[in-house]
Amino acid sequence: MRHRRASFGEELQGLLSQVCIEVIRPSPLALTPQGCRWLAYIKLVASRPCCLAVRNWSCSTSLALLFFEGMYRRVTPTPVLYDVSSLYNLDQILERHRDVTMATDILFVNKIPFLLTVSRDLHFVTVCDLPNWQLPTVEQELLKVVCLYEHCGFHVTSLLCDPEFEDLQPTFPYLNPCSANEHVPEVERMIRTIKDRIRSVYVTLPYRHLPRLMVKRLVANAVLWWNALPAPDSVSDVHSLRYLLVGRELTYDKHVRLEFGSYVQTHEDHTNDMRQRTLGAICLGPMGNSQGGHYFMSLTSGERIIRHRWTPLPMPEEAIA
What we know:
Elements (H helix, E strand, L loop, with lengths): L7 H17 L8 H15 L15 H9 L19 H7 L1 E11 L2 E8 L5 E5 L5 H17 L3 E7 L13 E3 L7 H18 L9 H15 L14 H5 L6 H4 L7 E5 L10 E9 L7 E5 L5 E4 L2 E3 L4 H4 L1
């Protein structure tokens, strides 16, 4: 018995039903009015016999993603409500812990150097990637950290480090390098903690290789969430470590919206032309600002971008490969 070959319209309808199951239903986009409109539209197109313009579409192409890239409309961003009166109500903490003892060391992740600092009583951690491991570069980054403490009313009175930083004594008179075969316990233990958190996220990612940009943001994201909560033995059991130095807390509805490494379509500025209105990107964690913006790695250029609106979608195979 000879089987009848399915027509192009039937093949397209089957493909659309598969796309709707695998792509649209797991996505929050299907719950929005805009998502329902264009979902009904692509079903209508598939039922028409005159849809010859899509004959060259590959079966592996996500039709839902293509329609979304062309039909996104810009939404007015939400105004930032910033309560200045609640900031820096830390007079008692400043009186008791104004003098800060800070420890620093070099952290390596995938052979990328990072300068990590931690304060003894505050337990506030800073980290920054270094273009090179030279003393002038380390000196410049340490000055930025010291200025941050000074700006918040604290005063760095001692800087604990390894003997390799001894040549920075003229710039930092309070530098206290340790002797041979000695280590600074605070910063060594913090390096272990940060590496454990980096490793716990790294093993959950589906990617076969992490670009240098993703490794940098992975380290910075681990430090960001360490500072987002009060430390058990910190100077305050109410305010986070970030609030003590930056003056802003992280909130669930703005900063816990995406997992590190998840795939999204970022909403781009557009005009009334034929260019796509969204961009495929990988989430690199929150910025920490009041608007709830996030860092992303563009899959088109490979560069870091900052966006405040996006639509999460299931991970395509092209992004993993």
